[in-house]
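Re-run requested by the PI after the first attempt was lost when the workstation crashed. Everything re-entered from the original request form. Ligand of interest: flavin mononucleotide.
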Amino acid sequence: MIINEALTVNGRTVNNRIVFQPMEGCDGTADGNIGELTQRRYMRFAEGGAGIIWFEATAVCKNGRANPRQLYLTEQNVDTYKNLLQNMRSVSLEKFGYTPLMILQMTHSGRYSKPNGTPEPIVAYRNPLYEKGKEDLSYQSITDEECDALPEMFAHTAQLAEKAGFDGVDVKCCHGYLFDEFLSAYDRKGKYGGSFENRTRLYLNCIDAVKNALPDTMLVTTRLSAYDGFPYPFGFGASEQKEIDLTEAEKILAELQKRNIELVNITIGNPYLIPHINRPFVGGPENGEIGVQRAVKITGELQKAFPTLKLILSALSFKGADAINFAEKRLENGDCSLVGFGRMTFAYPDFYCDFLENGSLDTNKLCVKCGNCSKMMRAGGVAGCPIRDKEIYLPLYKKYMEK
Ligand SMILES: Cc1cc2nc3c(=O)[nH]c(=O)nc-3n(C[C@H](O)[C@H](O)[C@H](O)COP(=O)(O)O)c2cc1C
């Protein structure tokens, strides 16, 4: 099966096609360090056998943190990260004879910044779709000068990631966070708004700064929203009628290719406003199956337009017991080069081991697509699976829901 085959990305070997997608646990410490639950989650991931473990959104600056417990890599805490990575590699090496490629997702949460627990939005532009009913709130549009300072911050975090022992870094551009929002800043004035070149300037400048700050052995990659799911001019990748339009996503992939970036993690949607597009679930406004098909269609079109790029397909947890077989078919069909799992890793981090051992997944351990991990996060708590990882997360879930 292709899913078990190795793949080379910018000269680095990925041992199979399974990607553990970035999943925020909101369980770091106030100073951005790894907390007890963070440690536990990643050690469980290390036992999962994935080819790539994509570390969750990690802030590059304090005011861009999505919550007061979001990871934030600094000179002061880098050694704890290093320790965790070493332990993960040892466990994986002993169990599987290989280590996963580990990538750190670097983020500025932009509109969704809550560094002190309450919203302190930093926006690319005022967006009536997101701000409905909140017209009185003072949303701070980031200035061009503040934008100019970001490439250095990303470069600095990337260097810390290298020091910690990560194999690569992701300049995050998805899910409505800062750089993704810039992609649809059609009406913003100045050098970061308007034309395609201007709207992608900050993102690409950050990628260039990160590449310049790192040795060639460090992978530079990105998680890119190819379609926000909002009509033009309030979202990226869509017409005024909200139809998918991948013209500019393809132009971005061409820019990435020019920069010798081979690995791109494709995603879609905004988890705050249209979570069914981002992470298909049961009981949403559309059958989750439609959401999975949308993700496949978009990633497939992009993969076929850029056959030498290694694209990751997202949103596979919904497929449940059939997830691996479905993923294998997508690989065989050339819709993607790797397959990503998000919620499944919270519920059932050893799903791939079970598949290798038994040829099937254990239906008693599967993610049930209930959305409770997201509910915990939105309630301001830590995120985990209260159904399959009950002992730890059920009491916390109950506590948050009582509030
Ligand atoms: C609790 C939770 C936390 C998440 N954290 C991140 C994150 O840190 N970075 C990111 O790019 N996506 C994040 N996502 C999105 C997932 O990576 C993934 O794209 C999404 O859940 C769809 O995949 P799935 O259907 O396999 O869960 C998160 C999703 C959930 C539910």
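Saved to the shared folder this time. Residues 373 and 383 are 5 Å apart (CA to CA).
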